[in-house]
């Protein structure tokens, strides 16, 4: 073949394809002329939102769809095909297909077509891709594409197609490049490609667009080091059991790009689509073939813990939900097989401490054996340590129990974090290396804790603060505009702690009267971290309030704190949650009897987000902009993870890779 891969040529595709060997390309994705006259000249009379852009009509003016001879050549040089607009010329395609792609453009009341169809040579079911593409409105406004061609399609559409229908190492052909969206998608995802565009004007436009994309660091660029180890410049991540994107968020903070995720809960998917618009969603983990999805450097999976948790049914890995762990291992090894052991290099598993003891420790042993594909002996004591390591011929595995309260969020949340390294013996270094060598410092840890503490004197907003009013009297939370703050129980003094209602003291509690599934009534000490968030319990903070001189009452709104409230017991003095008679000094120094009441309110979703280390309102909105109800937010946050703990693991991975690169230079 006389063409170089990863190039765009200004040629007639029919003449060019004659120089290409049979079945040279694994996949052809094409958007040819439909033969309906949509060449750009009529675009100016479409739409009502804004003045339409005028495009230069392209070669042929869309008068004719490709002839049968074109399709004969296309099928000769490629194994599989995705052909947009085939509903306009289906009689020219040699065979029918059960697998059509429906691109829902979410056009609303526009006079443009509601969707476009693409014929494929695959034997699977019809699939729908939804992405707004209505004039100046696009499905990913944060990464809005410049429209340079009248029939331009979004890069995200092509990335979705490549993720579903291309395999690692496939070569991709586009015979009608147009805007080069297909080539940009190939470049972004690491596929070799070849493109042709016959129109000189649009060839130059597309070439410039491709050049600009190639000026950006590609996700799959890497440098080969001695011993076959690769140091990835931009690490990539795949997240199984993704939830609300805790792993991708922590990865993003460490410079790691998440390419795809698997999740089945509708609200969780909607939340992550809002925050990671370019991340591809693969759906149910049981339907994923690891050898057919994009390879990534790191695979994370916080597999369902209900059957391992002491609060669950304790069915262990034999349980229906926790047993999905094996599906994740299947996908990981399918990917390694398809990439000759190259991807993934690391895996991270997160789960509850109950995994150590489930089934008398046999379940954690099974976890290690499934990951290493080797026989692992039980410890002589019969109990697994909270930190440890095993090494086999193919992989090193290390684990460590982390408690979120020591990583910048005031929540007792102990979780197992397990790292497996298929590319060396670095898992133990990743987990056990001294934190100070990873950039952590005592001052930094204190600063993180102070993110939940008082800012200024708390009496009024400053230039670096803002006040969020939830339309409830005195129900205000001070937040720092630049740093995401977390709630703590030790509010008080002259100011209010960020993330906590304006009260002197608060006691973190867990009360079974709020939910019968709770693990017993717990009242924490003042200043203690909150109990572990879960999806089955309702968590709360408590305080005491009353009308001064007018008797005590229950209230779900904290009164405004004042300087003199500690002088004597009074209406705005918080007390511990225990019903009893108290005596206090009232007017004229007389002793009066007071009856205290429980005063409970649930933690707000905002507070739960902060307890898990998420930015404010992370779960508040769906990708459509609609507000999500509180109940699914509580469930999603309870099932999620403490983001700072995961960030610690990613920092360890980045550190060992940087060190290995430095050793070889």
Descriptive notes:
The protein is built from 15 helices and 28 strands. The chain is of the alpha/beta class. The protein has an 8-stranded mixed sheet with strand order 1-10-9-2-3-5-4-6. The longest helix is centred in the last third of the chain and has 22 residues.
- Approximately how much helix is present in the residues? 10-25%
Could you give the order of strands across the largest sheet? Answer: 1-10-9-2-3-5-4-6
Mean pLDDT: 73
Low-confidence stretches: 217-232, 307-312, 442-507, 511-523, 543-586, 591-600
**Rg from alpha-carbon coordinates:** 29 Å
Q: Give me the number of helical elements.
A: 15
Strand content: 15-25%
Distance between the termini: 37 Å
**Biggest sheet: strands, sense, closure?**
8 strands, mixed
Rough outline: globular
User: What class do helices, strands and sheet pairing give?
Assistant: alpha/beta
Q: Would you report the number of β strands?
A: 28
Task: Please give a handful of descriptors for the protein shown.
8-stranded mixed sheet; 15 helices; 665 residues
Break the fold down into its secondary structure elements and pairings.
Blueprint: E1 7-9, H1 13-17, E2 25-30, H2 68-77, E3 78-84, E4 100-104, E5 115-120, E6 127-130, E7 133-134, E8 137-138, H3 155-165, E9 171-174, H4 181-189, E10 192-196, H5 200-214, E11 222-224, E12 230-232, E13 236-240, H6 246-253, E14 257-261, H7 266-275, E15 280-281, E16 298-301, H8 325-338, E17 346-351, H9 354-357, H10 362-372, E18 387-391, E19 396-403, E20 414-421, H11 427-432, H12 442-450, E21 465-469, E22 476-480, E23 507-510, E24 522-523, E25 539-542, E26 581-585, E27 591-595, E28 600-602, H13 605-612, H14 630-638, H15 643-664
Parallel strand pairs: 1-10, 2-3, 2-9, 4-6, 9-10, 13-14, 13-16, 14-15, 16-17
Antiparallel strand pairs: 3-5, 4-5, 7-8, 11-12, 17-20, 18-19, 19-20, 21-22, 23-24, 23-25, 25-28, 26-27
Helix pairs in contact: 3-4, 4-5, 6-15, 13-14
